[in-house]
Structures are given as C-alpha cells and as structure tokens.
C-alpha cells in the first residue's frame, strides 16, 4: 500500500503554510510517493508552480483547494445591521421577544445579548475540493472565482450547497479537518444535523464524496473519527486519511511557529496565541500508520478496547483510499492553452490582423517620411519590412493590433499617452502606427532586436504610459469593447523580502526595534544593489563582484554573523507569499470568459476582478497581458497644456518642443531641474553638474547613468571627463568607435553591448539578445564562460571533442543549436585573444549596470518636455505640478516657486480659482478643491454661479447644500473672500449675521497675522499670506535661539555611536532637528526631557531626507534654568 497526501498546504496558505513548493515536492519525491495534492486555504494561486514542480519530478499533481463553506451565501453577504435585523425578527417569531419590542427603547448591549442565539452563523467552515479531470478543474476555477464575487467574508471566499451543486461535476469533495461544518456539528452533539449535511454532500458529489479522518490525537478529532466510522458504514460513504500538512519536515515546527506569529501579529514569547502541535509535517506512510496507532491506543484507553479491530480496519481503509483517489485523477489537466489566446480585436474591411498591421505601418511610415524628406527612405523601408516579417511570422500581429486599438482610443478620448517606454521604442512598426511617439528608433540607434527577435518565443512587451488621471478609463474601454467577463487585472503577491523579513522576524523574536530597523536595515540600505527589491542572493553575489562590491559584501556578512538567528530565519522565509496584490499595470484580456481558464478574486475595496495567477504564469500558459500604466507626469503635461490653451494636446507639444534648443540645455545645466521628470533629484543635479549637457544624447546618458551601480564604477566621471575635454576618448576595442562615439567611449547601454557582439564576433540579433544581453544583465555567472568563448572563438553547432567544456581556449559547442546559428567569433574578424580578454576584463566590472537605451531615450524625451514647459510656461507648469503633488512635495515646490522662480503663491480667490492650482499672471492661486471640506458637488456649484460681488452675493447664488456653514467658513478662513475684506473675522461675523447663526461673534480687533496663519494652516495645510519664522530662514542660514524641547529619540549611527533626532518649538514653529554623535556626546544632558524643557541651540538650517522637509542641524546647546 502506498500513501498519498490529499490535504496539503504550501506557502500559498499565507503565513500559515511553511512548505515552499520546491522543498515540499522534493520531500514527496524523497519519500517515494507517486502523487500529491495541493489544497491551500482559500486560493488556487500555488497551482501553476506546484503542477510544474510535480511534473518535473515525475509526481502526479492533484489540483485542489481547501475552501470555505457557509450555510447560505445570501445570508452571509448581508451587512451586520441586516443580519441583526433578521435575528431580531427570528427572536420575535420564536416568542422570545414581544411583537412591540421595537416600539420601546433598549440598551444596545441588552439588545445584542437577546438576539445573539438567533444571529446567522458566520463561521467559515472548511471543505476540501479536488479536480478529477479538465471539467473538474474548470469547475473548481469557476467555483472559487464565483465564491469570491458572491461572498467574501473576512477575506475568505465562501461557497454554500447551491454553489457546490452548480460546479460539482468532475470534483472530489472531502469533509476536511475538524474545522468542517459536519465535524463542528458532531463536536457540539448536533448529530442529526451533521448526518443530514453529510447526506446532502453525498447527494451533490455522489461517490466522489469522502469523509476525512486525521491522526491528530486530541479529543475532538478522536470523536469525529469514530462518528465518521459509524456514518461511513451506515451510509456507504468512503473514508480518506490525511494529515493536514502545514510544514515540510518534523524539524520545521519552530520555524513554522515563527512564521505563524508573523501572520497573526504575535510574538514568540506571547503565551496567549494560536499554536499548532507538532503533528502537521509531510509524514511518510509509516509515520501516518504510527500516528493512527497512537491515536488508537488513546481510544482503547477511553473506550475499553471497544473499537480496537474495527477502528484499525477503518483507518487502514482510509489510508488506502488515498491511492484510490489518486488513481481517479487525470494526469494531463491543462491550466492554459497550447497557442496564444489573443483577444478578439475588430479589424475593418474584412482584413486579417496581419493585413491590417501592414496597411497601418506602411501608411504611417510614408506619412512620417513625407514630413521628414531629409531621411533616407530606403533605410526606413528596409527596416519596416524586416520588422513586419518577424512580427507576422511570429504570430504577434493580433497583439499589436489590440494595443493599437486602445492607444488610438485613448488619444481620441482625452487620455494622452507618453512617447514610449521600454524596449518597444526600438520598433519602427510601433513608431509608424503611433503606439510610440516622437522617438525615431533609426535616428536614435534603437534596436528592434531589443524588443523582438525571430528566435524569441515569448510575446513582446509593449508598456504604455497613459495620463494618470484617465488610465482607468482605458480599462473601462477594454471592458466595454471586449466584455467585462473577458477582462481582469493581473494579480501579484507580496512576498517576504530581505528587509521586510528581517523586520518581521525581529519583531516576532522581540528584538529591539532600534537594532533591527535603525541599525541593521539602514546599513543594508547603504549597500548599492541596482534592483528595486534585492534578494539575499543579490547580496551574496557581491562577494564575487568588483572591489567596491566586495567591500559591501564584507559589511553585509558582518551584520549576518552578528545576528545569525535573525538572518537564518529571514533567509528561510524569503520569497514566501504574504498576501494578494495587484500589478500596477498588467491587464489580462481573453477571447472567452476569464474564468473559463483563470481563477480570479474580486477586490471589495476597488470592485475590480484580479487574477490569482501572476503575469509570468499567465504568459507561460499563453495568455496575453497588456501593460497599461498611469504616469503622473503625463497628467502634469496634459494639465499644463490645458492651462496654456484649452485646445492644445500632447501631440501639439511634440511638434513644439525643439530638442536642439541650446537655451533648454543651459537651463538644465544651471540645475533648474526641480519638478522635471527623472532629473530633479540631488543625485541627478550632481551628475548634470559633472556632465554639463548640451544635447539630447547627454540627457539620455544621464538617465542611464544615474543609478547606484553605474556611479559606483565611475561611469558618470568617465563620460563627463571625455565630453568636457579633461581626458581623451579611449575605446575598449579597436573598430567599435561607430558604436561608442556617442557616449564618448563609455559603454552605457545594453544595445551597445549587443552591437559590439554582432560587429566584432558575428552574433545575429537573437544571439546578441539571448546570449550577450541576458547573460550579462541577469548576471548569470555560470554562463559567463560560454559568453566569452562564443565571442572569442565562436560557436559550432556540432558535438565537441572530449573535454571541450573545460577548455577555455576553444569554441563553444551547441549540437542542438539551442543558441541559434553558428558564430564566427572575434578571431575570425582579426581580433586577438589578448584584445578580447582585455575587453572582457574591462566590461565585467560594470556591464550588468548597462541600461536599456530605448527606455532611457523615451523617458529622456519626457524630461525634455517638462524642461521646455517649465522654461517657457513656468506658471502654468508649476500650477499643474502643485495640483498633482502630495503634501510634502507641494511644500517643496511652493518654496521653489517663490524663492527660485519669482512666482507668488496666493490664497484661493472665489472668483478666479479653478478646481486645482490656477495660474493668474505671475501668481499661482490655490484651487478651490484644495480647501479642506470643499467637495466635488460644492465645487461645481461655486464655479457655475460665478462671479460674486461679495460674500452676501455668494450666499444668494450658491445652493445652501453646497455652501453650508462648514464650506463657507473654510473658504473665508482660506482667504477666498479677501477681495471684500482682508479681516477674516469680519467676514465670518458677516456670514453668521446673514445666516442668523447663534455662534459667538469674533472681535475683529483681535485678528492678526498669527490668526491668519492658523486659519490657512487649518484649511490649506500651509500658511500662505504670512510666512512662519522658520519658513523665513534660508537654507544654510545659521540659527541661534531659545527653544522648547518637545521630544528626543536616540539612535545608534553607523559607527556605533549615539546620536539623536530632536523635536523643538521655536517662535511657535515645530522644528525637527538632528544632533550628530560628535555633538550629542558633549551636549547629551541638554536633550534629556526629564531634566529640562528650555534650551538654547545654535545650528544651521538644511534640507531633510523627505521632499520639502527642512531640519536644524544642532552644533551647540545649553540648558536654560527654569
């Protein structure tokens, strides 16, 4: 007899399953088991990874789910108030309460106590569902997705008998653990109800229903197992044995417990918390039998050997039935399609997508060439024909037509798109049909092969930046165009990362917050990894990097050695899913109902449908995703244009911006880059100061360089020194000046590496992409020997001589042609081994930092667009910027307007201000919607009924609901009626008089600048009319003042010394201050809030780390006697 695990949680049972799929399947294989199920809580999310891993290890995957059950999803979907009202009616019907109960007043506590026994049972009970075949799999997908839509309670998707009956075909049902509805009924001695439910599930699933027993040796489990034994015999139902697996090995118990603490927000040393017994690992058949034997010993003790033989026969039958179930499962359930599932885009004139794409592309190209007659038509025709052949032969025309459809719709529906994003900008086809804009890929040497090659099998990615404010309209359009049931947002999963894992584990282990967050994690932040979310593997790889990277690894390794258990657990938990997420841009569109293939969930907060598969998983199963991003800068550009002239569009701006405008580059070189896209940070300003850009290519280079990796190896200085004549240009190889001349001999772009591979070593497009770019960009160190040998000696598509793998001075042999055609190698083109080895020695320290030039070029064009608008339309541009900014950035930009741009920021004007910040000559007025308490309906009525002679006129014209007391007083306080009277106390009193309000009137004589500042701070978030004492202090200005000490927070700096963050009040201004360790040790007693509140400080005003934040750096301090 074999045994198969049929109740099996992986790490996709969020923070409850410590059973990573790779590790779990490895253990199943080690135990010699031929099949295994996956039954994660509430989700089918882990199934793609589980199925793949099982198949790769010759194990039959059984696709399932531990779902949640409720008695009636209609009842459970009601609000709490509705359920309480129903309970009250039931109590009245039962005679527990009189019919006139509601006519008298009752305390809520008494009322709830009275009806509690009549409340609907909202417990979420457990149920195991397994797919037998393709029909069963589709039904499981539909059941879970529909449960999510109809009844999500406490984050769990609930089904009831109606839903189970609807989707029962092809599904095996197991009664699950003692958390099932029938088990709970039995435990609570409601035997008849349990039996009735069991018979109902048997009626739904027929012989596919099994009563599940487990060897957990606790009273409740023993009772349920014995009752199931009776009921199986009585009703001819088969039993099945499971172990409710939650972790992989017996020894993983404590680590699972730590993970559970993370999931339940508890600490390990908490005594009152959820805790498993050490029973739920992947047991072998022998361990399962042993566990049931131990359980039987206890039963014999409790029942005087009454069940000895019968129970042993029962659990042996249940164990054997795991094989019966496994044998019922089909071995070839498909999760996707054998061919790409393109959406059904409508093509005019009965053309095929391929014919339509050719028509659009050639028409678009000739229109472009007719407006740019200086271009060589033959070069463009040849490139377009080449690209079209590859796109069409690869079968991707329907995809590109679909992207064209929604980008074209957006342009004609007030939703502008950016010039391009990513590798798509390298395609002349996309440029010709208007998916990308204004960056001619031939003119800027952008490679189509960076986007698509004839050898690449995966669909290309076309990422589009849409107007942030209208991006959702594009998705609504897709739902209307294709049908809502065919469109879904693509899901993601938040996973345990390096820093998040360290913080979570540190909290659970009750380690000092300051140690984990302010020392360990901050030190990790200082390590330069050119990734948004570095992994432990990335940090470990620093050991084999350049000198700078090796130094950083030493620091990381030191931290790990000092905190071994913390790092061990964080490493163990890395990559474990924490929760559902949603992709920022990915949208799935299918030719059929999404739930015909893909499980989804409904997000109750946003109302959108989200796939349980990630983007890469969907692509693997031949689903087509579309990347629809919202970019705030596109909205800023659009809003700026509308403020200049309502008729202008982003297409007009493309025509207006002259990227050869020398004044524009002087403006950028003077570091006036605040609010300009991508080039406003201090790092960018530093690089701009070094490079001194004079042309568009310099901006492209700056955008490629300005990352920690390139800077750490001096790319910025290398480029700047040659450009500015400090050093002579040097090329790392002869004969490649045509490739590197534009970047002054520095290799900045992946496209340059690819071009060198083609020109020097004879790679084709596909090889330059799949060998050069991917191996270097992904830092696949194990493949570096192949990369180097292919470049120097070439590649032969035949069997190599014995020992060729270890011979570094020979070609690479590729008998199956996995990496395309044979490669000549650099030696055949006149290069020496020494030259090529020197080239690789040169690039290996930095090549993985090289950037995608297509992306750098398109985003640099957005930088130039914002620079042009800021220089030539500064008031309109900064108005749009302020409207799109958060509170911190808004403060920063207002300061820049007034201090650097000579633009005055003014309070709102009821007659002149629009919804958002409004340009008014050389002023920017606050928008009416910026006033706290003024909602959309009030805004519309205020604008529609303008102009107003005075406050009384506004009261007469604006409907009272839109100009209620709160709205009116806040508008007065903000300064919106200052044109009538600058004393806002007078205006408030006038409003009270006109409305006959009973509020106490203000004394107009007591109105002063401090009252004005408080009013504006309360309604606008900032003081506009008058500046606070702190706002009038310039950056770098010295400060010497008495201060009130509000709080002190000590931390340990990088050198292990105490420093402090201080909160002070000076002249009615709350100020954040920093005292570095060298000063703190000297003046520590001055910052002890228990010793003193009044101190004297000397220091300097500087920028803080947050946008718009300024801080005081304290250099001296002394206590002031009380």
Automatic annotation (TrEMBL):
NCBIfam families: polc. It is an enzyme of class 2 (transferase). It comes from Megamonas rupellensis. Residues 282-309 form a coiled coil. One of its GO terms (molecular function) is DNA-directed DNA polymerase activity. Transmembrane segments: none annotated. Its EC number is 2.7.7.7. SMART domains: POLIIIAc. Residues 4-71 form the Polymerase/histidinol phosphatase N-terminal domain. GO terms for biological process: DNA replication. It catalyses: DNA(n) + a 2'-deoxyribonucleoside 5'-triphosphate = DNA(n+1) + diphosphate. Keywords: Coiled coil, DNA replication, DNA-directed DNA polymerase, Nucleotidyltransferase, Transferase. This is DNA-directed DNA polymerase.
